[in-house]
Amino acid sequence: MVCIYCGSKTAITNSRHQRSTNSTWRRRKCLNKACKAIFTTNEIAIYEQNWTIKSQETISPFLRDKLYISVYKSCGHRRNSVKDATFLTNTIINKLNAVIKDGTIDISDLLRICFDTLSNFDQIAATYYRAYYF
Ligand SMILES: [Zn+2]
Predict the structure, then answer these.
(1) Distance from Cα 9 to the centre of ligand 1, integer Å
(2) Structural domain boundaries of the chain?
(3) Ligand 1 centroid vs 91 CA: distance in angstroms?
(4) Residue-level pLDDT at 4
């Protein structure tokens, strides 16, 4: 990766696996002596290109943003709905990682895991989710 400030080559100075998001956090330093900028990157799987959702009639790409929006709407009554939806979406994706086979998720498994995760977190959110997404 090149420097986001000057376009020069960079070096990784620190790297950590983030279990909660199944991603890799990296600190980079610009190698241009006139710049020496330090910035952070985050490597995460592109689920849209790797996972599919299977229903009775269709196979479609798994859209992380679509999952996030459904969780966010379900958490709309909560004070920190953005933060809660981000945390819950990451939790759901980690649970999907444990059950996915050949990159395909059955829609019923996705709905069940979403509902169960929301039920453990907030009953109102789970009720909203069931009403709008089942
Ligand atoms: Zn630079």
Answers:
(1) 8
(2) 10-43, 47-133
(3) 35
(4) 98
